[in-house]
Amino acid sequence: MYRDKKILAIIPARGGSKGIPYKNIMDICDKPLIAYTIEAAEKSKYIDYTMVSTDDSKIKEVSLKYGASVPFLRPQEISNDTAKSIDVVIHGMNFLKEKGEKFDYVVLLQPTSPLRTHNDIDEAIEILMNSEDDSLVSVCEVDENPAIMRKIKENRLEPIIKFTGENLRRQELPQVYIFNGALYINKVSMLLEEKVFVNEKTMPYIMEREKSVDIDNMLDAKLVELILKENGND
């Protein structure tokens, strides 16, 4: 709880994964991947309830071991490849509401972002809840500016973004950011009314690029292991 507002953390973790089988509980430095996110949520000063939403009994077992609540197995209609995260979150909120648990804010924590810490979570909560805005999303700087990127059309190179000036130097380009998938924080009322995590008023929470690795393949997993080992696996 922060400023008398009750905060729910939802960790979505379905069993199916096209790239890496059982990715959410794969071993990363002798610990299941999802454990890093559960532990970060549990260490948060402000999160009141940490829930894993999964359709898989193995993931449920691992999640319970590391301290999360898993009060249901997610229905298959919101567990397939086309399922939207917003539907998963609303389903989880409604389930808890029927059990008498009501919250003011929801923090969506994807288990594929294991380098996000409890300090990141708490700082982001403070930033959002000391503002007048309804939502916040974590971002990081991009490696390459889209202004220097090109698409190929009819065997010709065309710019993705057109600037009025010519021959812009890299240092003159505007800094741009990308969602890193680590944190989404929203007022419950916004989620229920708009059914989106991000709108034109969403605040950014800037994270370091080395904390922003989102595991999508084995190369990402190896990079995370390297970073964790260099940091003492803390």
From TrEMBL:
From the UniProt annotation, give the residues forming the signal peptide: none
Q: Name one Pfam family in it.
A: CTP_transf_3
**Membrane-spanning residues where?**
none
Q: What keywords is this UniProt entry annotated with? A: Nucleotidyltransferase, Transferase
Which CDD domains does the record cross-reference, listed alphabetically?
CMP-NeuAc_Synthase
The protein's GO terms of the molecular function aspect are: nucleotidyltransferase activity
**InterPro entries referenced in this protein's UniProt entry, alphabetically:** CMP-NeuNAc_synthase (IPR050793), Cytidylyl_trans (IPR003329), Nucleotide-diphossugar_trans (IPR029044)
Q: Which Gene3D superfamilies match?
A: Spore Coat Polysaccharide Biosynthesis Protein SpsA, Chain A
Query: Which PANTHER family does this UniProt record tie to the protein?
Result: HAD SUPERFAMILY MEMBERS CMAS AND KDSC, N-ACYLNEURAMINATE CYTIDYLYLTRANSFERASE-RELATED
- Kindly provide the name given to this protein in its UniProt entry: Acylneuraminate cytidylyltransferase family protein
Q: Which organism is it from?
A: Clostridium ganghwense
